Amino acid sequence: MGIEKMRKGASGMVLTENKAYTVKDVYNLPDGTRAELIDGQIFYMAPPSRKHQRIVTELATAINTYLKKNRGSCEVNVAPFAVFLNKDDRNYVEPDISVVCDKDKLNEKGCSGAPDWIIEVVSPGSNGRRMDYMTKLFKYQEAGVREYWIVDPIDETVTVYDFEHGDVGKYSFHDKVPAGIYRDLEIDFTDIDYI
Question: HSE on the CB side for 93, CA within 13 Å?
């Protein structure tokens, strides 16, 4: 195999580290295998925990309720929802929650370009934490996401990156967390039923 390093994916498929993959490779993975693609590298995703799914459901419901009440034009989507971040075939992610306000970015496959607001709920383990706090943080900012929340059930914290205004806020699960892209939306994390 020369200098190429090999690794075994969650599906048992062996992939080379040095190969650049495309969205087509992700779509060709065995049924049931979830993966994301960042700069041509495949990252496998473990199934989410029940707690993770409860938080996603509660947050998506709160946002969707706000949008309906205020007749907002944005659309809320939950994973698995395809986001082709850079409108290329080397970056494909499935954020836990994507809020898209530009309907021209939406098609039957998902979102082509950056959503306005992304929320990721951190999965246990170092790989999930590294992805959400580092890799995806950089990619989302670079792609033009306006706001990015990292919801961490382990630390019971919410980190808000308001890229549009250059602000970063840190909140606990005992706080009301304001959404930067809306003037009057706050999500009260004490109301989030995640147990």
Answer: 25
For 64-101, give the DSSP string: HHHHHHTT-S-EEEESS--EETTSSSS-BB--SEEEE-
Q: For residue 183, which amino acid is it? A: R
Identity at 65, one-letter amino acid code: T
Query: How long, in residues, is the chain?
Result: 195
Kindly report the pTM of this predicted structure.
0.88
DSSP structure class, residue 195 = -
Q: In which element (H, E) is residue 180 found? A: none
Residue 7: how many CB atoms within 10 A of its CB?
Answer: 11
CA distances in angstroms from 191 to 70, 131, 160, listed in the order given: 20, 27, 18
Instruction: Please state, in angstroms and rounded to a whole number, the distance separating the CA atoms of residues 143 and 141.
Output: 5
Tokens linked to 116 = 């306005």
16 - beta bridge partners?
6
- pLDDT, one tens digit per residue, over 126-135 is 677 889 999 9
Give the rounded percent of residues in the chain with a pLDDT score beyond 70. Answer: 89
**Structure token pair of residue 120:** 């990721």
Query: Rounded to whole angstroms, how far apart are CA atoms 116 and 121?
Result: 17
Which residue numbers in the chain have pLDDT < 70? Answer: 1-18, 126, 195
The span from the CA of 45 to the CA of 17, in Å, is 17
CA distance 4 to 2: 6
